[in-house]
UniProtKB/TrEMBL annotation, chain A:
PANTHER family: 39S RIBOSOMAL PROTEIN L20 (PTHR10986). One of its GO terms (molecular function) is structural constituent of ribosome. Keywords: Ribonucleoprotein, Ribosomal protein. It comes from Neogobius melanostomus (round goby). The keyword Ribonucleoprotein applies. One of its GO terms (biological process) is translation. Gene3D superfamilies: 6.10.160.10, Ribosomal protein L20. Belongs to the bacterial ribosomal protein bL20 family. GO terms for cellular component: ribonucleoprotein complex; ribosome. InterPro entries: Ribosomal_bL20, Ribosomal_protein_bL20_C. This is Large ribosomal subunit protein bL20m.
UniProtKB/TrEMBL annotation, chain B:
One of its GO terms (molecular function) is structural constituent of ribosome. It comes from Neogobius melanostomus. InterPro entries: bL21-like (IPR028909), bL21-like_sf (IPR036164). Belongs to the bacterial ribosomal protein bL21 family. This is Large ribosomal subunit protein bL21m. SUPFAM superfamilies: L21p-like. One of its GO terms (cellular component) is mitochondrial large ribosomal subunit. It comes from the Eukaryota.
Length: 149, 224
């Protein structure tokens, strides 16, 4: 081809490459190394960063719940109860506080947490008493206990 | 004012008689088997010794928990009920309990709030800026000397939590990206959620507890 004028010789690729590149680089400015300056490296790093952020939003919910559970377990062991016993007995008392709030109470309101622990322990003892009954076997059941009595 | 917790052990609960009456009798297994043990021993021993149960001790011969404590008799329980109720009522009617905190269920989440708190709710609320709102689902209210635990909610006449809508904005833009390598699959979506900011104005308790609340548990807290 023979270009007879300058405007035909120079191709115009697009007017806004600069701004498209800046859109990616602005998310990479706090990165370390050349990936905060060079577009090809930055594109990959920014994509990884967005992916990690997306996945972490789901993981955060799981991690926070694990954290609350371990805090509640530690606080209830200070009062001589275990986490499953505490939670199960609170549910049986129809107290519907979630783990977030119970762990906050354990940290900032120790007396209220102690009262919840005692409530759960009382319910636990009630359950044991109901299970033990009066110490006799149910009528019509033959067992070692009945035979030896 | 800092009063110590009431000493007798009890609890207050709504009138739900199904489980919360004291069990009439609960003898641990050993006591019922003691007479059997004495009979089975040789005739030479006349004095009843605290012998083991006749069942050989295996991992399953006794329940895994230690012997259940004997339940409190009914009159004692009612006396303790009255004692705790008068104690807590005197605190509440005096209205000098200081700062109250409450656990409130709002917008699918539970929040532990006090007066002058700010709450950021990640969704749209059907109220204009400056509207006063009453948060009705209260699960727990506490002060320095007592706690009221709802089972699951406390009565609306008992607690009142007022809030004001301060601000209705949008969140920062969050990026939701999907990418499969070597498949030329990539999606990017920007999420902006409406947010509302509430200021908790005050938490108020009613004048006195209703007499129909049945005692469930004690030590200075009232569980309804």
């Amino acid at each position: 081809m023979v270009f007879l004028t300058l405007s035909c010789l120079i191709r115009s690729r697009g007017p806004d490459r600069y701004w498209k590149v800046q859109e990616v680089l602005k998310h990479a400015r706090h990165f370390r190394g050349r990936k905060n300056r060079c577009y090809s490296l930055a594109v990959r790093a920014v994509r990884r960063a967005f992916l990690y952020a997306t996945k972490a939003r789901k993981l955060k919910k799981r991690n926070m719940r694990t954290l609350w559970i371990s805090r509640i377990a530690a606080a209830s062991r200070e009062h001589g109860m275990k986490y499953p016993a505490l939670i199960h007995n609170l549910i049986k008392c129809s107290v519907q506080l979630n783990r977030h709030v119970i762990s906050d109470l354990a940290i900032t309101e120790p007396r209220s947490f102690l009262s919840l622990a005692k409530l759960a322990r009382a319910r636990q003892q009630e359950g044991f008493r109901a299970a033990l009954g009066d110490g006799k076997e149910t009528p019509g059941v033959l067992s070692r206990v009945v035979f030896l009595q | 004012m800092r009063s110590s917790h009431v000493s007798p052990k009890m609890a207050l609960s709504r009138v739900c008689p199904r489980l919360w009456r004291a069990c009439s009798l609960s003898f641990p297994l050993q006591s019922s088997l003691l007479p059997a043990a004495v009979r089975l021993q040789s005739s030479a021993s006349s004095t009843p010794t605290p012998a083991e149960p006749p069942v050989p001790r295996t991992s399953l011969s006794l329940p895994p928990w230690a012997g259940a404590p004997s339940p409190v008799p009914l009159e004692e329980e009612q006396r303790q009920h009255a004692a705790v109720m008068t104690a807590v009522n005197s605190i509440i009617s005096g209205q000098d309990f200081g700062r109250l905190f409450a656990v409130v269920y709002f917008a699918g989440r539970q929040w532990k709030v006090t007066d002058e708190d700010l709450i950021l709710v990640e969704n749209h609320i059907e109220a204009e800026c400056g509207d006063r709102i009453r948060l009705e689902k209260v699960l727990l209210v506490g002060a320095q000397d007592f706690t009221l635990v709802g089972r699951p909610l406390l009565a609306k006449e008992l607690v009142r939590v007022d809030a004001t809508v301060i601000e209705k904005t949008e969140s920062v833009p969050k990026v939701n990206m999907k990418f499969w390598k070597r498949h030329r699959f990539q999606k990017k979506k920007i999420i902006i959620q409406p947010q509302t900011v509430l200021r908790i104005n005050n938490i108020r308790l009613a004048q006195r507890l209703h007499e129909s609340y049945q005692i469930l548990f004690v030590d200075g807290f009232v569980s309804k």
